[in-house]
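Crash report, auto-generated. Payload:
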Amino acid sequence: MVKQLDENIDPALPDHVGWRLWQASRAWQAEFAEAMRAAGHGWFSESRAGLLGHIPRRGIRQATLIERVGISKQAIQQLLDGLETEGVIARLPDPEDKRGKLVHYTQRGLTALGDGDRIKLEIERGYRDRLGQGPFETLMAALRGLAERQAR
Amino acid sequence: MVKQLDENIDPALPDHVGWRLWQASRAWQAEFAEAMRAAGHGWFSESRAGLLGHIPRRGIRQATLIERVGISKQAIQQLLDGLETEGVIARLPDPEDKRGKLVHYTQRGLTALGDGDRIKLEIERGYRDRLGQGPFETLMAALRGLAERQAR
DNA sequence: CAAGATAGTCAAGTAACTTGACGTTATGCG
DNA sequence: CGCATAACGTCAAGTTACTTGACTATCTTG
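Recovered output after restart:
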C-alpha cells in the first residue's frame, strides 16, 4: 500500500469515491495510531488493531477468533504471539477442551483498550465539529450503506 | 491488515467512524480489483494501483514519481520492476539527464487504464443509485473535508 | 574542477500475511 | 466401545509490500 503524504490534496491526483474513501480511512488510522503511541502504546499497529477489535473484554476462545476474523489461523497465531510478547494478551489452556486455548487481555491490554475507546470518541468529536452534525450523520449512514453486502 | 469477510455487518463488532471508513474503503477496493481482474488484468493489485494513480498517461520521470508518492525509492523501484515485467509500463533513459529514467505506459498499460476509468465510473454510479444523489454528494464532500490536512 | 547533491540500483531485513505438514484431542457413528 | 474423521493449535517455509543501508554514475554549484 502506498503511504499517504500528509499534505493538502493534489489536484493532479485521481479523484473518485474509492480514492476519497481510501484517503479518509488512512487519515483516521494515522490519527488513531499516532494518538495510541502518544498514549504510551508503542506496540500498536494497524493489523494488531484489526485483531483486537475481535477480542471482547471477557476473552475468547482462539478457535472462535479464527472463525470470526477471516484470515488464516497461522496469521492470527503470529499476531497473538506478538501481542503476547508485548504483554497485551495472554493465552490460557481451555479447561473445557484440552486442545483449545483461551485468549484474554492482561491489565496492560485492558488499559490500552480503554485509551483506544477514549481516542476514538475524541476523533469522532473532531469529525463532527469539522463537518457539522447533519453531514456527519449522513456520512455515517452512507458508509454503513456501502459496507452492506451488495444485492446482486 | 485483517481481511474483511464479505458478510453482513456483525453487530458484535466495533462501530465507529474509523471502522466504517475502513470497511467502505475495503469494499470499494475489493469491487474494483475484482472487476479489473475480470477485465483480464490479472496483474492488478492494490499497491500497484496506488502507484499507477501517480503515473500520468504522458509518462513521468522516475525521480518525480519518487518525490510524489511518499514511499522509499527502492519500494517504487520494486513496484516498477514488477509492472515492467508484466508489460504494463516501460522505462526509457531520459535524454535530458543521463542519470534519469522516464516511466511510461505500454499499450497494455493504457488499455488497463481505460478499463480502470470505466470501472470506477460504474462503481460510482452504483453508489449513487444505492445512496441517492443528495447523500452521495454529502458523502463526497465530507470525505474531501476529512482528507484535508487538519489545522492544529 | 572539486565537493556535494541527485538518480538509480543492489542487497538484506521486517511486517503481515499465505499454504502445507504435522501432532494432539474431541466427536460421532457403526 | 473403538476407530475414522474432524477440530485445535503449532512449526516451517514462501510471498508481498514495504524498509534501511551501501554503492555507482551523473549532474550542479561555488
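Post-recovery validation: Helices of chain A lie at 17-38, 46-52, 62-69, 73-85, 107-131, 133-147.
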